[in-house]
């Protein structure tokens, strides 16, 4: 089965277009490196929790929107190699001023255990 990287971040709502530009460039690089699918989701119905929630997890500020995204890879080995190459890609190094606070990003790699299409 595939391997998936998942991400949750808070993006300043006013920087949606800038974020989408960065995500589009990154998606092209990931596809070239073997990713099967890249999905970016702009929060539309993301409730505040009292104990846990996406907004709490990323310390979302009032002027920010939660973004949930994932990258599907054919395998963990290809993901590991692809991520290393991604970090060294000149297009990524050219991108300055990321439109979100990377210190509040939640991310992780996951083994797919069920997939129903």
Mind explaining what this structure looks like?
This protein has 117 residues and is of the alpha+beta class. It has 4 helices and 4 strands; from the N terminus they run E-H-E-H-E-H-H-E. It is globular.
Short description:
The protein is an alpha+beta fold.
What is the C-alpha radius of gyration, as a whole number of Å? 15 Å
- What fraction of the residues are assigned to beta strands by DSSP? 25-35%
Report the mean per-residue pLDDT as an integer: 95
End-to-end distance: 13 Å
Helix content: 25-40%
**Got a strand count?**
4
Q: How is the main sheet built?
A: 4 strands, antiparallel
Any descriptors?
117 residues, alpha+beta, 4-stranded antiparallel beta sheet, 4 helices
SSE arrangement:
Blueprint: E1 3-12, H1 16-32, E2 37-42, H2 54-57, E3 64-73, H3 76-88, H4 90-94, E4 106-111
Antiparallel strand pairs: 1-3, 1-4, 2-3
